[in-house]
Amino acid sequence: MTAEPSRTPAPPILPAAPRPPRRRPGVPEPVRDAPSMAIDVPLPAAVIAYARSARRWRTGCDVTVLRDGGETYPAMLTALAAAERVICVETYILAADQTGERFKAVLIERARAGVAVRLMYDAVGSLGLDGRWLDDLRAAGGEVVVFNPIAAWRRRFRLSHRDHRKILVVDDRVGFTGGLNIADDYAAVEDGGEGWHDMHCRVTGRIALDLARMFRRTWLRAGGASYPAPRLDDASRPGGPYVRLLDNARLRQRATVRRAYLHVIRAARHLVRIQNAYFMPDRGLRRALVNAVRRGVDVHIMVPGRSDVRLAQWATLYVLRRLARRGVKISLWRGVMMHAKTATVDEAWSTIGSYNFDAQSRFNNLEVTVEILDAEVGKTLAGHFARDLAHADPFDESVWLKLPWWRKVAAWFAYRLRRLL
User: Fold this and answer.
1) Burial classification of residue 120, based on how many CB atoms lie within 10 Å of its CB (0-12 exposed, 13-18 middle, 19 or more buried)
2) Angle value at C-alpha 249, between 245 and 252, nearest 5 degrees
3) R_g of the chain, CA atoms, integer Å
4) How many CB atoms lie within 10 A of CB 59?
5) How does strand 341-345 pair with strand 349-353?
6) How far apart are CA 410 and CA 399, in angstroms?
């Protein structure tokens, strides 16, 4: 027999190296910050019931409540003029009016002095912005990014996805946020503005760094040039006020602000004070407010008596009637638009931000709000609410019944469209 020739074993088949994922043109690279160092913060027993979780609270922060454009704009302009390294501005509405020119002048001056100036505005909110305003800032060295430009031909374009935040951070150390955009509507009457009523806050400490990092994430996703993540070297001070930033940028975070409100309303024991420009809460929040009244909590809500969005005003009336019939106190702001988005519960938990009780804030918009566990801030906001009652009219069932029939029909119809408002 002839011996079979020996066979060399075939080399093993190695799996092909994974190819890098292909990204569609125009889709930015994901933003990957360093892993979060958030840890549970030991909160005082007096306020722990109002915190939905003990994570990501910043200690030793300073919070200053600012009322209307008469207080807010001077504080912001002063901080801008003192900038040494970097300025980050994020706004929904930016107008090339008298107020916009005041901000542009200081931004240009700081940019020429070598400060890194980054401005991001929303394409829909700032639809009528004069391009020359932006050209002047760019010529001085400032960087400008428009959030979600109106371009229906772009893949993944969604007109309803807007950047509704109002953020200013200077040198990663001083931050501002709240309800005020940059336009004459919010400026004081004596400064040539319309005198809309709104609330803002100035913050320092680690919470300002959180605002700066939030700005950077949105800036990069909107196509802005990359820059190092902001950092602070000094350690935070122990103790209050305790402040936490609520972000809803990711899909899993969309309900973050709503859950915070729901938790704290359920925890309320004495009083709830809410001022909100577009108030159309969902069934769960309405039930929580009514249940708080049944527990003996003094629940009082203030909304605009005359809104800049008429359909929202009518839909709100329909909701208010249902709440008023169940014991919730309602007040309608008298005069020009009330644009505030604030709340305080038991003068222990407070919030100031851009979040409205409507479908746009809940499902579509980028929003920012700060939670504050501090008795002084709570008393300050409750004091502003009490002061505002002198400029508001009570609303109850008797007021509803006196409305003309067409207003009631309009309220019913607008409420059916609340998911679009």
Assistant:
1) buried
2) 100
3) 25
4) 18
5) antiparallel
6) 16
Whole-number Å distance between alpha carbons of 289 and 300:
10
Task: Calculate the alpha carbon distances from 160 to 81, 153, 374 in Å.
Answer: 35, 15, 35
- 126 phi/psi in degrees, rounded to 5: -110, 40
**Cα 111 to Cα 94: distance, rounded to the nearest angstrom:** 18
pLDDT tens digits for range 285-302: 999 999 999 999 999 999
> Is-contact 334 224, C-beta < 8 A?
no
Its pTM stands at 0.87
Residue 139: exposure state from Cβ atoms within 10 A (0-12, 13-18, ≥19): exposed
Q: H/E element holding 176?
A: strand 174-178
> Contact 371/349 with Cβ under 8 angstroms?
yes
Residue 55, pLDDT score:
85
Cα dist from 157 to 124, 161, 207, 215, whole Å = 13, 9, 32, 21
361 vs 261: CA distance, rounded Å: 13
Q: Work out the average pLDDT over 180-187.
A: 96
**Nearest to 214, CA basis, from 238, 239, 244:** 244
Residues listed for the chain: 421
The whole-angstrom separation of Cα 365 and Cα 162 is 5
Sheet holding 116-122, edge to edge: 62-67, 199-204, 174-178, 167-170, 86-91, 116-122, 143-147
- Cα(177)–Cα(211) distance, rounded to whole angstroms? 9
Looking at the predicted structure, is the pLDDT value of residue 7 above 50?
yes
Would you call 115 helix, strand, or coil by DSSP? coil
Phi, psi of 72 (to 5 degrees): -70, -50
